[in-house]
Request: fold
Amino acid sequence: MSQRYHVFSLPLELLDTLTPRNLVTNQTTRRDPSPPAVATKEQTSTSARSCNVCLGTAFADIDEQRSHFRSDWHRYNVKIRLKGGDPVSESVFAQLVEGLEDSLSGSASEDESAEESDAVDTLVTRIKRSALSDIPEEGAPKVPASAVIWFHSPPATQIGIYRMLFPLETPTAAYLSELKEMQTPIEGGRKWAMFMVAGGHFAGAIVRVSRAAEEEVSVPVNARKKPPKPKPETIVMKHKTFHRYTTRRKQGGSQSINDNSKGAAISAGAMLRRYGEQALRDDIRGLLQDWAEDIRECERIWIRASVSNRRIFLDYEGCVINKGDDRLRTFPFPTRRPVSLSVLRVLTQSELSRCLLELTQVKISHYTEEDLRVQDEAFLASLPKPKPQPTPVSTTDIAKPKPQRLTKAEEIYREKWFRLLDMITKGRLEPLKSFWEREAESIGGVNAAIPEWIGDRRVSLLQVAAQSGHEEIVRWLLYDLRADPTIPVAAGWTKAEDAGGESDTSDVPSSRRTAYDLARSRAVRDVLRRCAADHPDWWDWFGAARVPSGLSKEKEEERDDKRKQRRKGLKERMREREANEMSRSTAAEEASGATTPEPSKTQMESHSGPQRLGGSSGATDGVVGLTAEMKAKVERERRARAAEARLALLRR
Reply:
């Protein structure tokens, strides 16, 4: 059985020979992260009974192959390949597992509903989630930091101590000096405070983890008497365990978390659990207040609690432990729930005792330097390949243009243009006239080009009014202000952009369009044609303005007369058609009356009596030639009249 060492009382002969172990710096030559060489037959095996993941390993029969697929070695190679690493041989995997057992001995969780920890998952998780250590040179493998700091003593002894025992932010080179300083006894001994809370169970203790300085004084030994028994390194000074009902059985989670997520439950059990949480919080804080003097003397404070339960110890009014205290630590290994059954009342049998032993007992392994080198190489080979770092794109050359800041005068000028275009678009002539009397000079006249910052393809005010379809504004612009109709539309305007335009000039090329081409209605185009007829000398109406012809009063009256005559002719033709239809229907009735025999007296009497719904057979002849829809309409009318007749009989 190997010798056990206490972390605060290491032998001097061992302490003087220790050197810190660094996985990367111990490598004399950088090794290619390829898997260890195996037999050529295994690598090149392509038979059906082989495993391509595990370096082409071949199998004698199907049972051996199935057993391999269920093995930890195969599972590890599959998971490590998915993360970008290289598979390892069976012998290398066995060395990795042995090293893992040495570094995590006694730290597996043994909760009532949990299974034993898996070596494969632990190896992969340690590579994935652990913090990365410093890289001495570019391209070197990134080694995750372990929870245990290892020291080597030649020829074949290694000891491991948890990183959490050292002060925070301790550099790698200072771990050995800190370990030697930990061997110096202090007055009263080193004290730790340990607290665990989960599922309503609480356990706490104040422990002295090293002998006091006064106990280290050598006492002369009487040869006739037995030497006194040395006092133990670890002494429990205070301990307390209790339990409150806070969690529903087999459900998990505290009642307060359930209330925050789903709303406050109204039940007797929920009320009991809420009371239990409050009582547990008060009991723990009361205990901390009672132990306040001892907690202030502690070198380390270990707390095992969830995020919500951690608020019980920290960050409340009058708290004993401050939130940013450098002494705070969490347990660097899995822990069980602090069950406080009657058989576990003694601290040496509780979970706190196991955690205390795990923290203070030094881990020991015995590997030669060659074994350590092989183990380190296997571990480096299992690490995922480093991803290439993307080159940052310089953002100095691609600078976003800053928005131009306008002066007060520019803002007023832009506001005038927006108001002017808004009044023209909405057809507000009277406000437009009064606005123009005040601001005509500042705008620049009726033929001033619309500024580019407005983002409009139209160039002049006349084009805006013509496309908006307001003939009164177009007439005012042409006759009163003498707006120029020859100004072309901006280049690039297409017919599809002329929303709803119905201009007569459908074949006008898109490169040369004027206000007449943008006019949406005939009334607006007639205004332009009338102005061309009234004032032909103002502009080049039939050339640059693209007006097809002038519209004088004589032409307009002639067009109205033709329109009236056309309407009159249509009405006369409609009257003639109706008269012809009436004459044809009269002749048909006379012809049918001459051939139809006069009804007899018996028939007249039968018709005077009650008749069936829908009328007689003559009614059937009345729907001959009608469409199905008209027949249905006639039938509905007949049934309505029959219903009205029945209601009249009932009223009598």
